[in-house]
Amino acid sequence: MVNYPNGKKHPSKDLVTSTDKKRKINYGGRGMIFEESIDTSNQYYRSHRIAVIHKRPTPVQIVKVDYPKRSQAVIKEAYFKTPSTTDYNGIYKGHYLDFEAKETHNKTSFPLSNIHEHQVEHMRAVEEQQGCCFFLIHFSLYNEVYYLSFKHLEFYWQRMKQGGRKSITLTEIRNDGILIPYGYKPRLDYLSALTLSHESEE
Amino acid sequence: MVNYPNGKKHPSKDLVTSTDKKRKINYGGRGMIFEESIDTSNQYYRSHRIAVIHKRPTPVQIVKVDYPKRSQAVIKEAYFKTPSTTDYNGIYKGHYLDFEAKETHNKTSFPLSNIHEHQVEHMRAVEEQQGCCFFLIHFSLYNEVYYLSFKHLEFYWQRMKQGGRKSITLTEIRNDGILIPYGYKPRLDYLSALTLSHESEE
């Protein structure tokens, strides 16, 4: 968490993408709530011994550190680095999970510009090792969160690569993905959606 | 990487434990080389599609950020947080791996003070989910790196908890662990040690 001069609070993730106006718009209070609901769900999964999933720390390039002998080191200059992997990973019943949480304020589609090539490459490599990769996509206008498997995302990624549309329509996400209802414990039970999605494949 | 006033270079990890004098002594140039050999090995594993393993970024508590409209955000004040998990995790042939790299300059033993309770708890939780946890322990005086499974570490951890010695002797590590010879490609083939260790269990 960071306090801005204007006193507004944003998750540090905002800052990573702060120079990207499009995404800057896509974050803020709701994005924070979305992220927090994932974090509290992960805490629930861990405390109930259901899964061990953590958010990766935001990678930071440290340039200058004050390093007083008898007190805590203070970072005086650092910059946000582009993450080379994804937001979250961990283990669930012997399965390696790796996923990315994305939010859009769009009404009818999720822009693929929210996803980086290297994240797609990372997920390909993980699935090659029999890991399970997916996306949690938050349509903030409707406050709807969808589970979308990497397999489905890859299809739309390739469509874009072949000159097709640069987004996935909400209709497509509703067809291919699974709506994750907001609950109480856990707040966002995405592991149930994951299980459903694998059952439907069998 | 951070440049200190005295010009000496340390891996940023040092700073995380900078207030811990014992560990501070245990790091430095060699520790950096040890860490780099793990990172280059992970790059080798990834580029040869053998495994997907990454070092977790150092968790940083961001306090103050300069946030100019048209340029990159600059972190002006931040502090190192104690990591809640381990240094590295990833996937290898469908198996979730989670491990910690530790170094000692001791001659005859590895002090368990190098390991935090919460890291042990994290590894317990991961193994409960059928993950594979282990330690890479570098005895810098001999430049020897050992693979030690969490199962073995846990034995010595419990011995300490029951009032026994607060360290693992090098002899014990040589008996229970597997020496990982420094090689060329990869620099530190710890996945071979992992495989050996699991074969020996069968």
UniProtKB/TrEMBL annotation, chains A, B:
Positions of the site: Transition state stabilizer?
A: K102
Entry binding sites for Mg(2+): T85, D87, E100, Q119
Where does this protein have coiled-coil stretches?
A: none
Query: GO CC annotation: what is one?
Result: cytoplasm
Q: Which Gene3D superfamilies match?
A: 3.40.1350.10
The record's InterPro entries line, in alphabetical order, gives: Resolv_RecU (IPR004612), Restrct_endonuc-II-like (IPR011335), tRNA_endonuc-like_dom_sf (IPR011856)
* Entry's localization field: Cytoplasm
Cite the cofactor comment.
Binds 1 Mg(2+) ion per subunit.
- What Pfam families has UniProt attached to this entry? RecU (PF03838)
Task: Cite the SUPFAM superfamilies for this sequence.
Answer: Restriction endonuclease-like
Q: Name the principal localization, coarsely classed.
A: cytoplasm
UniProt KW keywords: Cytoplasm, DNA damage, DNA recombination, DNA repair, Endonuclease, Hydrolase, Magnesium, Metal-binding, Nuclease
Disordered, as annotated region: 1-21
Q: Name one GO biological process term.
A: DNA recombination
Q: Which cofactor does it need?
A: Mg(2+)
| This protein's record includes keyword DNA repair | yes
Q: What is its EC number?
A: 3.1.21.10
Q: Name one GO molecular function term.
A: nucleic acid binding
Role: Endonuclease that resolves Holliday junction intermediates in genetic recombination. Cleaves mobile four-strand junctions by introducing symmetrical nicks in paired strands. Promotes annealing of linear ssDNA with homologous dsDNA. Required for DNA repair, homologous recombination and chromosome segregation.
- Per the similarity annotation, which family is this? Belongs to the RecU family.
What is the protein named?
Holliday junction resolvase RecU
User: To which species is this protein native?
Assistant: Macrococcus hajekii
Q: Which gene encodes it?
A: recU
